[in-house]
Amino acid sequence: xxxxxxxxxxxxxxxxxxxxxxxxxxxxxxxxxxxxxxxxxxxxxxxxxxxxxxxxxxxxxxxxxxxxxxxxxxxxxxxxxxxxxxxxxxxxxxxxxxxxxxxxxxxxxxxxxxxxxxxxxxxxxxxxxxxxxxxxxxxxxxxxxxxxxxxxxxxxxxxxxxxxxxxxxxxxxxxxxxxxxxxxxxxxxxxxxxxxxxxxxxxxxxxxxxxxxxxxxxxxxxxxxxxxxxxxxxxxxxxxxxxxxxxxxxxxxxxxxxxxxxxxxxxxxxxxxxxxxx
Length: 278
Description:
alpha/beta, Rossmann fold, 2 domains, six-stranded mixed beta sheet, four-stranded antiparallel beta sheet, 12 helices, globular
């Protein structure tokens, strides 16, 4: 797998602290894949995203875009941040203007696009996110789920190559979560590499093509979802839960499960059961 972003032996400590938030992190974000970055709060997921987006510079080690090391000169960082979109966990920390239309257009205007192009892209983004009817509604009147969609729209409108989302489904009900995941899948289908930081193992198992697990500022596991999540002992040792579908699958007698692949969605598991009941 070709990486879009690579961390090589990256360590980082926040100013005024003695404990490293990242410790000798080496990992690759595969281009064109949906990657889940998993771990408890404080494991280093958010700090790694700040490194990947060029907002922080490693204390040790280096970050690479493709095979080119990051440059932290102003012009290079501006170019990098047009390639990489970061959606924060709390949309209140990202939304700065008064309405969805104003906020979505802000990044385009800041990047120097013409007013005609700003209007075109903003209208297109509002429509894609189902926000047209709310385009001029004050942001403080919107639910947390709608604010998250506005924040995502404000990033996608810049057409990044890499999209980083920090706990995007936090505080969402199931319906809002499904809609958000659908929107992430559409972004992925359009050619954007999508990385989601989450501690929801069920979501990571169902959604991701590649999984990276962090603990204590280190990468401790990475691989394909089935390989990662079948290792119940390793997950429990990290204080993480095994996805429910994998737990159910492993509880089946071997003759019942057969040699098929473990189901990763409820629909796949239902099909498996219906075939066995016949």
